[in-house]
Amino acid sequence: MVGLEVSGSLVKVELYPGRLSSKVACLGPEGTYTEEAREVLLTGNEQHRMQKDFLQKNTEVVEKVDKGEYDIGVIPVENLIEGDVVDVWKKLVQTKNTSILAEAIVPIRHMLIGRTNEEIITILSHEQALGQSKKFIALNYPKAVLQETTSTAKAVQEIKDMSNAAAIASRRVALIHKMPILAENIGDNPYNATRFYLIGRGETEPTGDDITTAIIYPQENRVGMLKDCLTVLAGNNINLTNIRSYPTSNRMGEFFFLMSFNGHRKDTSVIDALETLKDPKKYNAPSKIIGSYKRAELPEGTVEPGAINGN
């Protein structure tokens, strides 16, 4: 295993057999917010020894990390305005060899990028960025055609060969492509931020300020099942920080709970709670932990995405 220091915690990453240094994947091309998150998560480590590649889709990052083609990957999972990145979560919960190893919260500051003195007919960006800038677009470009791209950085690449087009992306990607910024901070919420995960095959140690994310699979569809799950967590003094439900894809009306809560998988309280839920004579709700990791620090001027208690 290779040891990485991420936000003050030790993350042990299992490299694919025969590999001497880490292969890292994230959404490209250069200039995406995911690349920025990668730098936040891996700063202080010997990145010059890593092979860092850009892929075309976030779901592709999850798939290739799980297959061992990459040792670690960086993916966005939740935005303050648009909520869950659903396609990423659906891939992540289906993985067999992948864990959440760390998280980072990155401020999102969208810019409108294009040529000056040119009528804007088309606006390009990733679907999340378009959704996070709806108010600005409706107010300033109500007749513009919105065109989705695989990333914000890809949008800027594409408008270089287009006329009457602008892109929504970060300041950094505008500088990379030497394109003018037509409007700054155009997002619907000035405190916008996105949560990113570092994923891979590996393990972490408790830090005293950890989050565990687990899938809870209730085996019965009955009144009070969710209440019982929450009661068991509360009885073990575990604070729930996020809860979601997703269909199992097995049959209509069958769901699992995706929960994040304070604590580490090695903490006695977490072990006892999940063992209690698994007991078929009591709750019959087995679980699968998909990661225990140090809680991310909240950057100044942002609000934590998805937090139950607000900020």
Describe the structure using short key phrases.
alpha+beta, D-Maltodextrin-Binding Protein, domain 2, Alpha-Beta Plaits, 3 domains, 6-stranded mixed β-sheet, 5-stranded mixed β-sheet, 9 helices, 24% helix, globular
Write structural notes for this entry:
- With 311 residues, this protein is an alpha+beta fold.
- It has three domains: 2-107 and 192-203, 3-Layer(aba) Sandwich (D-Maltodextrin-Binding Protein, domain 2); 111-183, Periplasmic binding protein-like II (D-Maltodextrin-Binding Protein, domain 2), CATH 3.40.190; 210-294, ACT domain (Alpha-Beta Plaits, 2-Layer Sandwich), CATH 3.30.70.260.
- It has helices at 33-42, 58-67, 86-92, 127-131, 134-140, 152-159, 171-177, 225-235, 268-278, and strands spanning 2-6, 9-13, 23-27, 51-55, 72-79, 83-84, 99-107, 111-114, 122-125, 145-148, 165-169, 181-183, 193-200, 202-204, 210-216, 240-247, 255-262, 287-294.
- Helix 2 packs parallel to helix 3 and helix 8 (225-235) runs antiparallel to helix 9.
- The two termini are 36 Å apart.
Low-confidence stretches: none
Radius of gyration: 21 Å
What's the CATH class of the largest domain, please?
A: Alpha Beta
- What's the architecture of the largest domain in CATH terms? 3-Layer(aba) Sandwich
Basic shape? globular
Distance between the termini: 36 Å
The CATH superfamily of the largest domain is identified as Periplasmic binding protein-like II
Q: Which structural class should the secondary elements be placed in? A: alpha+beta
How many individual β-strands? 18
